[in-house]
Specification:
heterodimer, A: about 260 residues, alpha/beta, globular, B: alpha/beta, 9 helices, disordered C terminus
Chain lengths: ~260, ~290
C-alpha cells in the first residue's frame, strides 16, 4: 500500500472510478461521456493508466480528447485541440449519445436517492429553493441513453437521500421496471463510487446497496452518512488500496506534467 | 450596403426592450462584448436564451436586463455557482426573473427545429424527470412508424441571435471553427442574426471543418477583437481561467458586482476600453494562427 499521508477521500474516489472505467475498457466498452470535475479527473487518470484506454467524449462536441492538463470547463481549448473529432452540440447529443454510441456516462450530482436517481436542479422546493443548482445540462439524456452510468459523489446524509427533492436524471425511477416503462435505452446507474466505498443496484429490487468499503471505513460510518436505510451486500468487499503507480499518475494528471 | 457595422449600432438597431434574444457559444466563442453592449444600452425586459448561461448571463441578470431566462445549465464552469443568477432566482434581486429549463439535448433539438423551419424537434428525452412538469414546451408524441413515445420540443425562433466567431470577410460571410457548439442553429433559427468577429479579412481562406454562415443569412457583423473574453476564440486567444475564478468573488457580493459593472462596462465606451479597464492585454494572433 502506498503509505501516503496526503491521500484524500477524493483521491480514493477518483482512483476507484478510474479502475472501474479501466475494467470496462478492457472488456471493450470504452466510450465514455465525461462531465467536468471529479468525473473528468478520473477519466483522464484511466486514460493514462489503462490499455486499451477509454475514449473520452465531452458534451462540447469533443470526441476522443486527450488533454495534457485537466480542463477547467467542458469546452477548454485543450479538449478541442487534442480531439479526434469535434462536432456540433446538436450532433454530439443526437448522433453520438442518443444514437447509442456511448458505453459509459460519468455523472455527479447534489443528491442521489436509493434508486440511483440524481438531482442537480434544486435543493428544497422548486418555487422557493433552498439552493438553486446549475440544472440538468447533459445529464438527463446521459442517464437515459448511456450503456451504464457511473456516479461519483461524496457520501453524506444530505446528499444520499430517500427521495431526491427534484428528479433531474433517472436511475431506476421508483424501482424495477420503471426504466422500461419510460422507454429509456441505457442501463442506468450501475455503480456509485463514494469516499466511503461503492454502491451497486441490487438485482431484483434495483436498490443501491453497499458492495465495497474503502480501507478503514466502517459499516457504521456508511449508515451515518446515508439518508435511507442502507443495506450491505453479502460478501462485502474491501477496496484494494491505491498503489504508487495510481497515485503518482494522479498527481501528474493534476499538475499537468507530461505523461 | 455592407452588413459590417459597429457593435454599438448593431445592438441599438436590432435589440429592443422585451425581445427574445439567444446568445450562444458553448464555452468557446461566448459573445461577451455583445452582452456588455446590451448592458451599456440599458436594454430591459429581455427573454434571454442560452444553453449554458455562465458569466455573461450572470452579468445581464445582475444588471437587470432580464425578464425571463430559458436555459439548460447555469453555472460558472469549473468554478461553481452563478451568484447573480442565484440571487435573482432565490431572492428576486435585482428583480424577479422567470426561468424555463431544459436539458442540453432538448435545447439542441429546439434550436435545430427552429433552424429547420419545423414547429418542433423530437428526441428520446425528458421521460421520468421532473423537468416535464415545469414547461409547456415539451409534449409527447407517438412515432407513426414504431409507436415509440418520443418527446416533442417546441422550436426556438428568437427575435435576435448573437454569436462570436473568428472572422468574416468584407461582405459579411462568417467563418467559425473549433468547438462550434450550437451557433449555426442559433443563427439560422433567428429573425435577426448578429455576429461579432475577431477580425475582418479581405478573403476567407477555407478551413477544414469550419462552419461558414454566408452573408445573406446574416443581419449584422461587427469586428470586435477579444469579443469573447474571458471565453476564447480558437486561433486568437486563450480562455482566461483566472477571470472565471475572480468572477466568483466579484459576483458574490451585490455591491462589488454593481461597482464592477459600473466601472468596467457602463463607464467604458466600447470593448477595447473594457479590456483596457480590466487590465487584460489584447494579445491575439492574426489570421487564426
Amino acid at each position: 500500500m502506498a503509505s501516503d499521508a496526503t491521500l484524500t477521500a477524493d483521491d480514493v474516489m477518483i482512483v476507484n472510478a478510474a479502475r472501474a472505467l479501466g475494467e470496462l475498457a478492457r472488456a471493450g466498452r470504452a466510450t465514455c461521456f465525461v462531465g467536468i470535475g471529479l468525473p473528468s479527473t478520473a477519466a483522464n487518470l484511466a486514460r493514462h493508466l489503462y490499455r486499451p484506454a477509454p475514449v473520452l467524449i465531452y458534451e462540447s462536441g469533443c470526441i476522443g480528447s486527450k488533454p495534457s492538463r485537466l480542463p477547467l470547463s467542458i469546452g477548454d481549448g485543450e479538449l478541442g485541440d487534442t480531439a479526434d473529432a469535434v462536432v456540433s452540440v446538436p450532433e454530439i447529443f443526437a448522433y453520438w449519445l442518443q444514437g447509442g454510441r456511448i458505453d459509459v456516462g460519468f455523472l455527479g450530482g447534489a443528491q442521489l436517492d436509493r434508486f440511483g436517481n440524481i438531482n442537480s436542479t434544486v435543493i428544497g422546493s422548486y418555487e422557493a429553493p433552498k439552493t438553486r443548482l446549475p440544472g440538468a445540462g447533459g445529464a438527463p439524456e446521459i442517464a437515459a441513453a448511456a450503456g451504464r452510468v457511473i456516479v461519483i459523489m461524496r457520501q453524506t446524509r444530505r446528499a444520499f437521500v430517500e427521495r431526491c427533492d427534484f428528479r433531474t436524471s433517472l436511475g431506476f425511477g421508483d424501482g424495477p421496471g420503471d426504466r422500461k416503462k419510460h422507454g429509456l435505452t441505457g442501463g442506468g446507474t450501475r455503480l456509485v463510487i463514494t469516499d466511503l466505498g461503492i454502491l451497486e443496484p441490487e438485482s431484483g429490487t434495483c436498490e443501491l446497496v453497499m458492495t465495497q468499503l474503502h480501507p478503514g471505513v466502517s459499516r457504521q460510518q456508511c449508515l451515518e452518512n446515508t439518508g435511507w436505510k442502507l443495506r450491505f451486500a453479502d460478501g462485502l468487499n474491501e477496496t484494494v488500496p491505491a498503489n504508487d503507480d495510481e497515485l503518482s499518475t494522479l498527481r501528474r494528471v493534476r499538475s499537468g506534467e507530461a505523461l | 450596403m455592407s452588413i459590417i457595422v459597429d457593435l454599438r449600432q448593431a445592438i441599438a438597431e436590432h435589440v429592443k426592450n422585451g425581445m427574445t434574444v439567444a446568445m450562444e457559444g458553448f464555452t468557446h466563442l461566448i459573445p461577451h462584448a455583445a452582452g456588455h453592449e446590451i448592458i451599456r444600452q440599458r436594454i430591459r425586459d429581455l427573454h434571454v436564451i442560452r444553453m449554458t448561461p455562465d458569466v455573461i448571463f450572470d452579468q445581464l441578470i445582475g444588471a437587470g436586463c432580464v425578464r425571463k431566462l430559458t436555459f439548460s445549465w447555469g453555472g460558472n464552469p469549473g468554478v461553481g455557482s452563478l451568484h447573480r443568477f442565484r440571487d435573482a432566482v432565490e431572492n428576486s434581486w435585482p428583480r424577479a426573473i422567470e426561468i424555463e429549463e431544459h436539458s442540453h439535448a432538448g435545447m439542441a433539438a429546439r434550436y435545430s427545429a427552429g433552424a429547420s423551419g419545423l414547429p418542433f424537434g423530437t428526441l428520446r428525452g425528458y421521460r421520468g424527470t421532473d423537468l416535464l412538469d415545469l414547461t409547456e414546451n415539451v409534449r409527447f408524441i407517438d412515432c407513426p412508424f414504431t409507436g415509440e413515445k418520443l418527446a416533442a420540443v417546441r422550436a426556438i425562433n428568437s427575435d435576435v441571435s448573437i454569436v462570436h466567431a473568428q472572422r468574416a470577410d468584407r461582405e459579411g460571410n462568417v467563418q467559425i471553427w473549433g468547438i462550434i457548439g450550437v451557433q449555426k442553429e442559433a443563427l439560422l433559427s433567428a429573425k435577426v442574426a448578429i455576429a461579432t468577429v475577431e477580425e475582418v479579412v479581405d478573403r476567407l481562406v477555407p478551413r477544414p471543418g469550419a462552419v461558414v454562415l454566408p452573408a445573406w443569412v446574416m443581419t449584422a457583423v461587427a469586428c470586435v477583437p477579444n469579443g469573447a473574453h474571458p471565453s476564447f476564440a480558437m486561433g486568437y486567444s486563450e480562455r482566461d481561467n483566472d477571470f472565471y475564478r475572480e468572477w466568483d468573488q466579484i459576483s458574490g457580493d451585490r455591491v462589488a458586482f454593481e461597482e464592477w459593472i459600473q466601472r468596467h462596462v457602463i463607464d467604458t465606451p466600447d470593448h477595447g476600453a473594457f479590456m483596457h479597464s480590466i487590465a487584460r492585454a489584447p494579445s491575439r494572433g492574426r489570421n487564426g494562427i
